Amino acid sequence: MTSNGAKEALGKLTRRQLMELDTCAHCALCTEYCPVYTETEEPGHAPGVRSSKAVKLYDKQHGLRARILGPKAVTDEEIEDLSDSAFNCTLCGRCMEVCPFGIQTHELWSKVREVVHDLEGTPRNVGMLEEMLEESHNPYGLDPDSRLDWADFTDLEEIPEKDESEVAYFVGCTTAFKGANHEVAFATASILNLLGEEWTLLGEDEWCCGSPLLLAGDEHSAREYAKHNVEVIESKGVKRLITGCSGCYRVFKWEYPKLLGEPLKFEVLHTVEYLLEKLGSGELRPEKTDERVIYHDPCELSRLGGLIEEPREVMAYLTSDWVEFEEHGIDVRCCGGGGLLQAANNEARLAIVKKRLDEAKSLGAEVITSACPSCKLTFVDGARIHGVDIEVLDLVELVARQLDIL
Amino acid sequence: MNGVLDALYAFFVEKLPYVTIAVFFLGVAYRLQRWFSAPKGPDGPPLDWPSAMKYVVLDVVLFRKTYKTDKPMWLVLVLFHIGAGGILFGHMRGFHLWSASMFEFLGHGFAEFMVHTLPVYIGWIFLATQLYLLYRRIRLEGTQLQSLVNDYGALVLLIITSILGQGMRIFPPEAIPPETYSVVFIPNLIVLHLEKVPSHHWFFWHVLFTQLLVMYIPWSKLVHVISGVATSALYGSRRREYDI
């Protein structure tokens, strides 16, 4: 890496992030709460160590010594080392919640990934995601024509693709393309139809929300995706955008305004908020289940998205027998499905989810529910691989099932 | 008394304070320049004062997060910071920013306890917690953390300064010139008034290391004393924006 390239890449750290890196006292109080470190026990995966590595590289190019005597070269080994640290992370933000200084690590580590991306140190598997996105506008490299295949597989009768509609359902790639989540889309569509909502899908015009690009450190491309999706949505006159993916929700709600430099002209709702609205108004009247249910907070919906009480209020309509994980709400422990960990270190992802599933079983849960297709996929994979007997359902599936439409 | 040592001690008191102040403010200027020369980045949440203040009090003053996650460590941190605050406050009496009479309304015995007895215990607690933090850092080094030189630098400097400070208390006072009772660092600005004659050598080395510590603050991890308030305020504003 040329000195200029490294200087420019490391110079992307914002003033707040630089202050945060300088504030990090490397106290290691976050380490025991990092889902990845606690599984791998690799020092480089500890958040505080990542902070040390990042600030060391920054100082090589921008520190006092570099200013006086000139920058020192950043070696390939250092880039690889930082990359290994940055991508062995679920970006769940738990370290932020534990940090005595409230360092906003989710954004900080995302920026470190951006630095790694610019230093050409992105892990191969993560780089492949970017290539697939470029080719097909989804991170799975599947033909955009197949984005609505879930509707065929689930025998959905009405598949609205309208030119104009006040309500749009943004399905999201992990729901649309992953078989384990097809019924999530079906349940959502069925509920919208049951309510007689005038709604539309974006169909093939729906591109990935850009979340994987942000997670891979490619903010530039993510901006292009944001522009495209917002143009399509606004061209349909949409006033309310509903999505069941917590990653898409967080990116639309909190990242798009930053990426585009202006607020969105439509309201962004997670399915959970929409369901709560309809349950509260009495338009939906599900029957309560007798099964013991446990709710797992998706990190991007709760700690990083701001929806913590809403899914619990929905749960109250669905069952009288539900239990909480010890670490829940803002203190939720990631299931392992975040931050593209599956691409970087699937072994760690599966080890992380095992703990979560084991705790659910120890609490007597028969059903584990969440509100995120990545969480569902991780729980399904974990239950299958570790042989854990538990039903995995998204919250919207649970509602649809209790309404007897699934 | 050794002439060289006398000259050195005089330097610690008469000349070094100017260097200390210069290096400290140079460090502050460097740190601010370092931060403000970085790109501003996309607008974060607007500073929400009520929420910012709430989390500064909860997280910086009361160590809420550490209490939630590691109660023994919370106790260490509380004792450490009470020690730091108590020692700092106690020193202000020497600079005539307050006097023992402010405690007299609670009785003379209490005032005596506050200005003469309690500081000794606080000093030991402060030192003990620093040593524990050093032990912990060494124990976790290479497994859970990768310290930078300045992580150790700040802690070691603090430990040396504290040992020298406690040394003044435990070693018997020596015969020193009466003018030492008022130590003029900067005339009419920074003058230390001592009511007891401290142990001579311990005192002057304590003076040196205290100044080294002050110089080091903006250049080291001790900057978190200031920046940690800012990061916690920004965290509080974020929570307000997310309504959590």
Offer a few descriptive terms.
heterodimer, A: 406 residues, alpha/beta, Rossmann fold, 3 domains, 4-stranded parallel β-sheet, globular, B: 244 residues, mainly alpha
What does this structure look like?
The complex is a heterodimer of chains A (406) and B (244). With 406 residues, chain A is of the alpha/beta class. Chain A folds into 3 domains: 119 residues, Fumarate Reductase Iron-sulfur Protein, Chain B, domain 2 (Orthogonal Bundle), CATH 1.10.1060; 152 residues, 3-Layer(aba) Sandwich (Rossmann fold), CATH 3.40.50; 118 residues, Rossmann fold. Chain A contains 20 helices and 8 strands. A 4-stranded parallel β-sheet of chain A has the order 2-1-3-4, with helices on both faces. Chain A has a 4-stranded parallel β-sheet with strand order 6-5-7-8, with helices on both faces. In chain A, strand 3, helix 15 and strand 4 form a beta-alpha-beta unit. The longest helix of chain A has 22 residues. In chain A, 58% of the residues are buried. Chain B is mainly alpha-helical and 244 residues long. Chain B has a single domain, classed as Fumarate Reductase Cytochrome B subunit. In chain B, 68% of the residues lie in helices and 4% in strands. Chain B has a two-stranded antiparallel ribbon. In chain B, a hairpin with a 3-residue loop joins strand 1 and strand 2. In chain B, helix 2 runs parallel beside helix 8, helix 3 packs across helix 9 and helix 7 runs antiparallel to helix 8. Chain B is globular and about 60 Å long. The N and C termini of chain B lie far apart (65 Å). In chain B, 27% of the residues are buried. The mean pLDDT of chain B is 91. Classes of the chains: A alpha/beta (406), B mainly alpha (244). The interface between A and B is large, with 52 and 48 residues.
